[in-house]
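Practice set, problem 2.
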Amino acid sequence: MNQIPTGINIGGALDKVVAAGRNLWLAGVGAVAEVSEGGLEMFDRLVERGRPVEEKQKKMVEAVTDRATRTVREAQRLVEDTVEFESKGMLKRLNVMTREDVKILSARIQTLSKKVDEAVARRHAVTVEPVEILNPQGEAAAIVIPVTKTAAKARTAKPRAKKATR
């Protein structure tokens, strides 16, 4: 059997072991508390350090997105311009009128129509009023209707001979 050496106070040694165990327990609980408190502080510090990094990343993503959007728009314009240029060239080679050609022709037709309408209106606007000739007593002696060039031509024009039908 084990013998306890003489001169050793068993009660005091047991108290020391219990005190050391209690201290060990308290150290563990303290470590958990420290990690718990320090963990929250550490978490808060990490959040604060992460905010500027997040803003920086957002700005970088926005810059990349803006550049990509501009590049896509420029490529789209280039494709549209190329298709339009090639289409016009093809239409010219096929001798087909373009939209611009039709607009120009339409404007010319409108101008010509206005000029024709104005000429017709001027021609019809020449009205001839009868002239009343009075005798010396002031009474109407005669009424003269002047003849215009158009009316004179119509009167002097030779009637066309009708073809005989059998």
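Problem 2, part (b): a different protein.
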Amino acid sequence: MRQNVALLRTACLLAALLGAAGCSHYSFSPSLRTGPRTVAVPVLGNDTIEYGADQSATDAIITTLTDDNSMRVVPEGEAEAIIRGRVTTYERPVFSYDAAGNPREYRVRVVADLSYEDRRTGTVIWEGRVEGWGIYAVSGEEGTPTTEEEARTAAFERLAQDLLSKTVQGW
């Protein structure tokens, strides 16, 4: 009888120890992340002749970072990181032609040279080219944007998504 009681106590103790080991600390908190938590995005420069390309790119980047919620966009004086750069290309070449050789679709393409710097350490985390594009149809084909402005918006949104991928890929 004593042997059964001792065996039962040992089994209960072993079960408690195994259960406790399985319940080790786990958290959904981002406290283990070492990267910057705040970022500033001053208005980009504009090396193109496209009026407002700088502000459109900056706005798209801020919106994308805000929507992603991986970093908080703050004024430059409060930021742990900063994104700087210039829009270097804005073009809209013909993307496709109809049977008669007339332009059917145009592709808006935007390119920016950007850098992402950790201001706490003074190190550039990455720098390089990001790109976005959007297509619009002259004839207003179903499912395709019908104005350059719609394609332009899509191009800047894709550019901002490219930046977001480069910025948070190491997490």
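Answer key, part (b): Residues 18 and 24 are 11 Å apart (CA to CA). The chain has a mean pLDDT of 84.
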